Design the sequence.
Protein backbone atom coordinates (compact mmCIF):
# COMPACT_ATOMS: atom_id res chain seq x y z
CA UNK A 1 0.00 0.00 0.00
CA UNK A 2 1.39 3.37 -0.98
CA UNK A 3 1.74 6.00 1.73
CA UNK A 4 -0.43 9.05 1.28
CA UNK A 5 1.41 12.25 0.56
CA UNK A 6 0.02 15.67 1.45
CA UNK A 7 0.19 17.79 -1.69
CA UNK A 8 -2.10 20.68 -0.79
CA UNK A 9 0.30 22.53 1.50
CA UNK A 10 3.50 24.32 0.70
CA UNK A 11 6.63 22.94 2.37
CA UNK A 12 8.04 24.65 5.43
CA UNK A 13 11.34 26.37 4.73
CA UNK A 14 12.97 28.34 7.52
CA UNK A 15 16.39 29.36 8.70
CA UNK A 16 17.46 31.65 11.54
CA UNK A 17 16.88 35.27 10.51
CA UNK A 18 15.90 38.57 12.12
CA UNK A 19 12.31 37.98 11.01
CA UNK A 20 11.92 34.84 13.15
CA UNK A 21 14.39 35.51 15.98
CA UNK A 22 13.96 36.63 19.58
CA UNK A 23 16.16 37.69 22.42
CA UNK A 24 15.17 35.63 25.46
CA UNK A 25 17.31 37.01 28.26
CA UNK A 26 20.85 36.23 27.09
CA UNK A 27 19.74 33.66 24.48
CA UNK A 28 19.01 34.08 20.78
CA UNK A 29 16.05 31.94 19.71
CA UNK A 30 14.99 31.49 16.09
CA UNK A 31 11.49 30.04 15.76
CA UNK A 32 11.71 27.71 12.75
CA UNK A 33 8.36 25.91 13.02
CA UNK A 34 5.26 26.78 15.06
CA UNK A 35 1.99 25.05 15.90
CA UNK A 36 0.33 27.03 13.13
CA UNK A 37 2.89 25.83 10.57
CA UNK A 38 2.75 22.14 11.59
CA UNK A 39 -0.92 21.67 12.38
CA UNK A 40 -0.04 21.59 16.07
CA UNK A 41 2.18 18.52 15.70
CA UNK A 42 5.46 20.08 16.79
CA UNK A 43 7.46 23.28 17.16
CA UNK A 44 11.15 23.65 16.32
CA UNK A 45 13.37 26.34 17.85
CA UNK A 46 17.03 27.05 17.10
CA UNK A 47 18.84 28.29 20.23
CA UNK A 48 22.19 30.00 20.80
CA UNK A 49 23.26 30.49 24.42
CA UNK A 50 26.39 31.55 26.25
CA UNK A 51 28.26 29.84 29.07
CA UNK A 52 26.31 29.74 32.31
CA UNK A 53 22.83 29.93 30.77
CA UNK A 54 20.36 27.92 32.81
CA UNK A 55 16.59 28.04 33.43
CA UNK A 56 15.59 29.79 36.68
CA UNK A 57 14.88 26.40 38.37
CA UNK A 58 14.19 22.77 37.55
CA UNK A 59 10.89 22.48 35.70
CA UNK A 60 8.52 19.99 34.08
CA UNK A 61 5.91 19.91 31.33
CA UNK A 62 5.34 17.90 28.16
CA UNK A 63 8.18 16.22 26.30
CA UNK A 64 11.14 18.33 25.29
CA UNK A 65 13.78 17.16 22.81
CA UNK A 66 17.23 18.73 22.55
CA UNK A 67 19.73 18.22 19.73
CA UNK A 68 23.14 19.75 20.39
CA UNK A 69 24.63 21.14 17.17
CA UNK A 70 27.77 22.44 18.85
CA UNK A 71 28.92 23.07 22.38
CA UNK A 72 28.47 21.36 25.72
CA UNK A 73 25.38 21.29 27.94
CA UNK A 74 24.94 19.52 31.28
CA UNK A 75 21.44 18.10 31.73
CA UNK A 76 19.76 16.85 34.88
CA UNK A 77 16.70 14.72 34.10
CA UNK A 78 14.98 13.09 37.09
CA UNK A 79 17.84 11.35 38.94
CA UNK A 80 20.20 11.26 35.92
CA UNK A 81 22.96 13.68 34.98
CA UNK A 82 24.41 13.71 31.48
CA UNK A 83 26.80 15.94 29.56
CA UNK A 84 25.72 16.39 25.94
CA UNK A 85 28.02 17.64 23.18
CA UNK A 86 28.08 18.02 19.40
CA UNK A 87 25.60 15.62 17.79
CA UNK A 88 23.98 14.41 21.03
CA UNK A 89 20.22 14.11 21.51
CA UNK A 90 18.50 14.40 24.90
CA UNK A 91 14.78 13.76 25.50
CA UNK A 92 12.83 14.68 28.62
CA UNK A 93 9.55 12.84 29.11
CA UNK A 94 6.25 14.50 30.10
CA UNK A 95 6.04 15.41 33.77
CA UNK A 96 9.71 14.65 34.55
CA UNK A 97 11.70 17.31 36.41
CA UNK A 98 14.69 18.56 34.43
CA UNK A 99 17.07 21.44 33.97
CA UNK A 100 20.27 22.26 32.12
CA UNK A 101 23.35 24.47 32.17
CA UNK A 102 25.52 25.61 29.27
CA UNK A 103 29.15 24.67 29.98
CA UNK A 104 30.98 25.73 26.80
CA UNK A 105 31.54 29.35 25.78
CA UNK A 106 28.57 29.09 23.41
CA UNK A 107 26.02 26.42 22.54
CA UNK A 108 23.92 26.02 19.45
CA UNK A 109 21.04 23.54 19.69
CA UNK A 110 17.62 22.62 18.36
CA UNK A 111 14.69 22.35 20.75
CA UNK A 112 11.62 20.37 19.69
CA UNK A 113 8.22 20.43 21.38
CA UNK A 114 5.67 17.81 20.33
CA UNK A 115 2.89 18.65 20.43
CA UNK A 116 3.51 22.30 19.69
CA UNK A 117 2.55 25.19 21.94
CA UNK A 118 5.54 25.86 24.20
CA UNK A 119 7.06 28.10 21.53
CA UNK A 120 4.36 30.63 22.45
CA UNK A 121 5.69 30.68 26.03
CA UNK A 122 9.08 31.86 24.82
CA UNK A 123 7.52 34.30 22.34
CA UNK A 124 5.50 35.81 25.20
CA UNK A 125 8.61 36.45 27.29
CA UNK A 126 11.11 37.47 24.63
CA UNK A 127 11.60 40.54 22.50
CA UNK A 128 12.41 40.73 18.81
CA UNK A 129 16.11 40.24 18.17
CA UNK A 130 17.86 43.39 17.03
CA UNK A 131 20.78 41.43 15.52
CA UNK A 132 21.68 37.82 14.87
CA UNK A 133 24.00 37.74 17.87
CA UNK A 134 23.70 36.94 21.53
CA UNK A 135 22.28 39.88 23.46
CA UNK A 136 24.33 41.50 26.20
CA UNK A 137 23.20 41.35 29.79
CA UNK A 138 22.11 38.83 32.39
CA UNK A 139 23.12 35.23 31.61
CA UNK A 140 19.90 33.25 31.60
CA UNK A 141 16.23 33.75 30.82
CA UNK A 142 14.39 37.05 31.21
CA UNK A 143 12.60 38.18 34.38
CA UNK A 144 12.10 35.00 36.48
CA UNK A 145 8.95 36.35 38.18
CA UNK A 146 7.25 37.06 34.85
CA UNK A 147 8.39 33.66 33.62
CA UNK A 148 6.84 31.89 36.65
CA UNK A 149 3.60 33.86 36.28
CA UNK A 150 3.17 32.85 32.63
CA UNK A 151 4.23 29.19 33.11
CA UNK A 152 0.85 27.70 34.21
CA UNK A 153 -0.79 28.97 31.00
CA UNK A 154 1.41 26.48 29.12
CA UNK A 155 1.28 23.59 31.59
CA UNK A 156 4.78 24.38 32.79
CA UNK A 157 5.65 23.90 36.46
CA UNK A 158 8.79 25.32 38.08
CA UNK A 159 10.24 24.01 41.32
CA UNK A 160 10.49 26.45 44.24
CA UNK A 161 13.17 29.14 43.81
CA UNK A 162 16.58 27.95 44.95
CA UNK A 163 15.96 24.25 44.16
CA UNK A 164 19.17 22.70 42.87
CA UNK A 165 19.37 19.88 40.31
CA UNK A 166 20.58 17.57 43.10
CA UNK A 167 17.32 18.25 45.03
CA UNK A 168 14.98 17.30 42.15
CA UNK A 169 14.47 13.82 43.64
CA UNK A 170 12.74 15.49 46.63
CA UNK A 171 10.17 17.27 44.43
CA UNK A 172 6.62 15.89 44.13
CA UNK A 173 6.19 13.42 41.31
Sequence:
Amino acid sequence: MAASVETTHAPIFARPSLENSLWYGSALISVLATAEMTGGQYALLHWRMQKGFTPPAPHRHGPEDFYIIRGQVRFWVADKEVVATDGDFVRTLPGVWHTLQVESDEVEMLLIFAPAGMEEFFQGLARPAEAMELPAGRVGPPDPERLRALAPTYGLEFSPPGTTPQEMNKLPQ
